[in-house]
Design brief:
This protein has about 375 residues and is mainly beta. The chain is about 5% helix and about 35% strand. The chain is built from two helices and 22 strands. The chain is globular and about 70 Å long. The termini are far apart.
Amino acid sequence: MKVLKWTLGIAAAVGLVFALLVPVDVKGQPTGWLSFLTQDPQGTVQFRALDQYGFPVMVGHGTAAPTTANSGAAPMDGEIYMQHATGEDPILRVYSQTNTAWRFGIGLNEDDHVSFNSPVVWQVHSENFGRVGCAQAYEEDMTAAVQTNGGENFILMPCSQIGVIAYRIEAEDGGTLAATPAPFSVDGVLTLDGYADDVDNEGIELVFGSTGPDHLGAWFDEDSGVDSYCEVSITIADFSDVDDLWFGWVVQEAYDNPPASDSFDTSALFVISDLAGDLDIETELNAGGTLNDDTGTTWTDAASHTLRVIAQADAVEFWLDGVQVTQTNAVLNMDATDRAVCLMGYTIVAASDPGVTVNWVEIGREQ
């Protein structure tokens, strides 16, 4: 019996060694318990644990996000992975099958600005327009909002982090809008249908977090030396109806009449100024002339894009859909005492309403 036990033990050990030595097709999907042995401390993906169906069961880690090429298995929807490239802070990432991309989670990056065991880098004020019951429009003197040309109103949102959105109407057709704007007719977005009649050059200009472009509510102060950003997600249903659209920072000044992207004294803006949807970045200092760079992106019908402009004491940055835009010409160093507001506007052509919606807006300041 002892001989038999020894024989069986040796056979089992040999079988295990043989199983581990048999070449495995690393390009295929790891299966079963062998998945837990999928690690290479010298490789890009240093550890991934997948079950027999290829689903993640633990948090992987490595210097780059997993791909089929570098780890033998495609990323799975909801997979969590800690990326820690040499010389960089770790970032906890989650894979999105919908976006076919690893999305940023917690870490030091332009989207979140949060690091482990450290204070929050940005103080963020965000509005996703999900509490429509806490919104009411007024004219500047707190009477009912007006729909006449040049009417200066504001949307008061006591449940919101940004609190207020000022807006000015450009209504050339008889000087009054034909219908009352209904900004929150759809829960979860700021719908701008009705803020302009279907008349050439009509439009609207909004100031986020302020009762007006030259009033209290400036979120960036050049003298403070504190970086501030304003960010918006915009969807445009029919771009051929947009004549001019702009978003970003504008140094405090009165509303322009008529509104236009190139009418500001000092500004840092994303701009679309043709019917083809060409998206540019533009800066201007003390009315000294527009400095322009092309983002390389063309806005198409029903598309949504996220625009972020970061104002700094001596510079400005533009970010499009989470990627920084290369700046060659569009640079800006604001003057001492300059204070800026987060502003958006557009004008239309005669055809019809372009169907502009603001999905969310966010304003952040360094701490």
